[in-house]
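In this notation, each integer encodes one residue's backbone shape. One such record reads:

___
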Amino acid sequence: MRAVMGVVLVLAVGLTGCATHRTHYSAMTADNSAGQERRVLLKWKTARYPAWHWRQDSATPVTVETQCSQRAWKLRDPGMDGACSDDAIAACGDPRLDAATSGQPVEEGRVCMKVTDSDGSTRVQELGSRLELTVSCQPRQTGVDMGDEVVNVDYPRASSVPYTFRVRTVPTGSLIQRPPQLGDRVCDED
């Protein structure tokens, strides 16, 4: 009976895994492509497991959201499903929605946003506390007609100088420490 209880205890501990789940985020103010000052939020989650655990460390894509916009970018590292770059944490543009800085529609597979840290990390799991976001495209139109309303799809203005973010890391699921909400009061004023 003790052997069975020991096995059950080991399985219970092994399956729950003692993982460390963290949420990482940062927000700053930047101009969108229309020249409006907006908050920009970066966020992602990681799970780190002990060396003895059967699961591997993991991370979600880095999500980039812009205040007043319905478009959320997902920047993936080369090892993730849906990645569009072989050497960077990046998101590619959509020829229907995005243009190069020349105004021409982007080509399929063109990187429009990429993120790294001060160490040049190319994996979301390895990102540090100071990030650089490079935006190299612009929306073809800042609003998309959805029939009964026009939906804002704007994002930070393209720039040759990366946007710098200081990252905050908190326990995932914390009730008091969480990424900020992008308020919409300023959206109604425009």
Observations:
- The CA atoms of residues 18 and 49 lie 7 Å apart.
